[in-house]
Predict the structure.
Amino acid sequence: MASNLTILFVSLLVLTTAIRIWLGRRHVSYIQSHRNQVPPAFSTSISLDAHKKAADYSSAKTRTALLETAVQALLLAALTIGGGLQLIDDIWRDVLPQHDILRGALVILSALLVSSLIDLPFDYYRTFVVDQHFGFNKMTPSMYFLDMIKHSIVGFLLGAPLLFAALWLMQGAGDYWWLYLWIVWSAFNLLMLAIYPTFIAPLFNKFSPLADESLKSRIEALLTKCGFKSQGLFVMDGSTRSSHGNAYFTGFGASKRVVFFDTLLERLDTDEIEAVLAHELGHFKHKHVIKRIALMFLVSFVGLAVLGWLAQQEWFYAGLGVTQTSDYMALLLFLLVSPVFLFLLRPLLAGYSRKNEFEADAYAAKNADARYLVEALVKLYRDNASTLTPDPLHSAFYDSHPPASIRIAKLAAFTAR
């Protein structure tokens, strides 16, 4: 069984890496082949220079991702069948031979640290080379590393208790530890949804109440019309880090709030902002957030049940390069290798997300003017340098939002009606 798992894992790792690289190269080729002509639906609203900029920006990001994909695959192979995880485990066994839970937490944190250090140069390059070159980055290196340190501290303070709880349950809660862990995990995620807007997000950005009274009145009227109650309307200082614009809902239950990037408010007029908000309200009205939470709980339930079985199989460890079985190693192996086994399901998840976006657009068209949503989207496509011509197959795997041309065409049909 162990050798069969090794063969299956290596085969899938090679296959999925090859597919990801092929999709990326196909995406770049498709974008560049359409670089010199603006799609007819956008010919009057987006200039050829802006279209070329979007094509080059998307291509540059994808080329960076191609190299990152190859490096991540090599790292995963080195950690598993290459014996890297077992080496980390051996080191900590020498340091802490008697403390299983603490040793397990340190082994997992060490492996995650190695992975983060490998990813760091790519993230830095995207920020200070790619985004900088195309005029989007507003961060300084000191701000970048300060953010990284704050993210690490917050992640540790929130994640460490959950990790220790998981290892404690795995060690002492009997055969159904995975069910108890699922309950803890679900409660933790609900707690994070509730406290994120008020306690966590302000650690990284400033949130100010919306000051424009005219816009505030329009938005509050729309919220009342759609039956949405929020804790408030806030403006986030997104411009301190990037010139990209966005708007979103955050929070859960009584902590829900509406957040606008300051960059978004600078680019869109009142009618367009109202239409964008109506789209976001469509997600609320169709219960997309609740459905995604329910899906996450279902997937985690199945995943932890599978892990509960795999943790008892010696071939699971041996087939992935680990010679000494342990609860923490089962958890770490599962976290690292499961994305390889699930990669081919990505089009299903992306397709479901795009379906939600179409539903939210339809809701916006009924409760605001679809023409203004089209105008807002066109501005965002242009100002964010989003490609108008993604490769359809690449989009099916990676894009949570519909391609621009298809989305605009559907909204134009609502306008015509």
